[in-house]
């Protein structure tokens, strides 16, 4: 990296992600129902840009974006379900574990990075220490009933999220910066929206992912769900455009994730200002965040 200009949009994206999570915690509505609205608002907001920005021509861009969209369709439901149930703070701290998975995946598909790390023993030791520390603090979560419950439910989704981010970075490698960022957000939103629409027609799948019932009338006019979807859409579009704009500029997507790890701190700040007390044990979660920060720091030396 020759410049740190990517850090500014990454920081704003981290704030937007934190606010989107807090919106979900506040409204406490059915996750798939408000996500249906969120994705629809995303599409409506992003479509006008398609008339001014040429679309990427490399087919691999769409392969990676659509593949990631399928994963994020499931991940989003689990994430927001757990946020409504256990709180934004708990979920944001646990999600820091996905950094380790993302690091391993990205290193596996870019062997040159692994060779570079191995060539610096102290750096390698720091990376292993950070990974080990993350596992240690994750095990400490077993002493907190709230965090343990959330971790068990979110673990598969975290792995899918890590894969989804890697696919997103691969997609960015096959597009120009502005077209890649805008069409990533648009194509992913269309993909996920279509999946949620499909669940309306398959009751068994609907029940499995806690999706809307076959009739839209049960929530289409619910002002609370509509408001949750609209607010989340604003923050989702902000974080998606800025996050992928930042990721396009860096060698490893984990760099942007490092800034994104400030999310739990922003949520704790909002809790403090609102006078809300955190019921879960925050220290193991903050330990996970600290280890994730160290991991990215050692990989970016």
Low-confidence residue ranges: none
Helical proportion, percent range: over 70%
Helix and strand composition category: mainly alpha
Integer count of domains = 1
Number of helices: 14
Number of strands: 0
Radius of gyration: 19 Å
Give the H and E element order: HHHHHHHHHHHHHH
Q: What value does the average pLDDT take?
A: 82
Apparent shape: globular
β-strand amount: under 5%
Q: How far apart, in Å, are the first and last alpha carbons? A: 11 Å
Biggest β-sheet strands, sense, barrel:
none
Any overview of this molecule?
Helix 5 (98-109) runs parallel beside helix 8. By secondary structure, the protein is mainly alpha-helical. The protein has one domain. Helices cover 78% and strands 0% of the residues. The protein is globular. It is built from 14 helices and no strands. The protein has helices at 7-27, 31-46, 59-86, 88-94, 98-109, 111-118, 121-140, 145-172, 177-201, 203-208, 223-249, 254-260, 263-274, 282-299.
